[in-house]
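#structure-requests
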Amino acid sequence: MGEAPLSIIIFAVIAIVLCVVMIRAMSQSAAASRTPALDSDGHEVFHGTPEEAHSTINTLADAGVIAWCEPGESGNLRVLVDGEQSEQVPALLRVQQHLKDNPEAATAQRESAS
């Protein structure tokens, strides 16, 4: 059996190097897209149990608000939003609380949306 030609070995090495470079570029791009929200100071809009915090984040996400959690005191979570979006949050949280307090209103809301 003969040895592989030198050109095939060189081609394989170049292909591997290009794959590594592409993977690194893609991971850096993904990290850059996450950085603004993580580096933002954020405005705290809610502080509560993990279940309440996740419910709040889902409500804000449904409205197109970028929100994230950070650990708070005694196992609670803080929900933060970007400063530019913080103005609309109180109204959204009031609607969430109203629907939570009035299940029949939530049912009517779902039926009217259908």
